[in-house]
Amino acid sequence: MSVKRILIIFLSFFIPLLLHAQIQVQGYFTHDTIKIGEPVNYYLVFHHPPSTEALFPDSKFDFSPFELIKKEFFPTVSDSSGSTDSVIYELRTFEIGKPISYNLPVFIILQGDTTIQKPAADTVIIKEYIIQLPDSLKLKENTSFNKIKKEINYPYYIAGAIVSTFLLLLLFFLFGKPLTLRYRLFLLRRTHTVFLRQFQKLEKEYKKEDSITVIEDVVSLWKNYLSRLENKPINTYTTTEISSQFNEDELKESLRSIDRTVYGGVVSHEAEIALSYLKKFSNKRFVKRKEEIQNAGNKS
Fold it and tell me: Which CATH number fits domain 22-127: 3.40.50.300, 3.30.70.120, 2.60.40.3670, 3.40.50.150?
């Protein structure tokens, strides 16, 4: 065998060994203890000859039992001793139990082949939030009453009062008169309806019993309603004064017929006719009063 051939075999065998001797891989965690799910940085540093090609684990790599959050590559730094590449991996894990020994590989491409170089494993301890649960929980009773002081949100209530007042004033200026008119007419109709219901009830009682007490109650009810309708103290007026106030002959005759029945004790059919006219007169005055209110609203 020639010397040249021996030299080639020697170089092809010993050069990889020399290169391997210059390659160093370091991997370590920045913390010895972490909590479950807490991010931790893992540094992977690769020292090598400048001509060496290598690949670091990327996002497709299986980082179990960790999850990759993100990674940061740093530019190659070279000097007389060689070149250095480094990567920081931000990892997290949800494993519990024993400490985790971990190392990430570097894939070295040498003479067309790929070899794996791993650093020494580094260990990280996973700290649990609850170390151990007791078999049974002892609950502490506390039945005492704790009074909570109520605080009033004065700015909130003041702002609400201001807004409410403003809205009410706005509604009053825009719809105050129509609403007031409708309310007055509503009260007028309701009062008249209640009056008619009570009047007709007493009127029926009188027709059945011919009682002087009942006819007195009817007249009293009629005078009180008329006082409210006309806004005058008609319930204190005598028959003559009422006749003079409205100046109607039929009303005058009806009131006299009722007086003869009450004071003379003479029960007759004339009293029934007189009561019927008082009801008719009330309806007429109601219509007149309603028209007055409506006309006043239209003018304003």
Answer: 2.60.40.3670
Q: What is the SS3 assignment for 288?
A: helix
Tell me which of 29 and 271 has the higher pLDDT: 29
Which residues have C-beta within 8 Å of that of residue 250, sequence separation ≥ 6?
Answer: 277
Q: In sequence order, what E strands does the chain have? A: 24-29, 33-35, 40-48, 53-55, 67-79, 82-92, 100-102, 106-110, 113-117, 122-127
- Residue 108 — φ and ψ, nearest 5°? -100, 130
Distance CA 249, CA 287 (A): 20
Half-sphere exposure of 163 (CA within 13 A, CB side): 6
Kindly report whether the global pTM for this prediction surpasses the value 0.85: no
> Which of 17-26, 257-266, 273-282 shows the lowest per-residue confidence on average (mean pLDDT)?
17-26
Top-ranked range on mean pLDDT: pick from 3-7, 125-129, 264-268: 125-129
Q: Look at residue 137 in the predicted model and tell me its pLDDT.
A: 61
**What type of residue sits at position 151?**
E
Express each pLDDT in 46-61 by its tens digit: 998 988 888 999 999 9
* Rg over CA atoms, the chain: 55
The conformation of residue 135, written as its DSSP 8-state character, comes to S
The residues, any chain, with a CB within 8 Å of residue 184's CB and separated by 6 or more, are 293
CB distance 111 to 16 below 8 Å: yes
CA pair distance 297, 195, nearest whole angstrom: 25
- Maximum Cα interatomic distance, the chain, rounded to a whole number of Å: 169
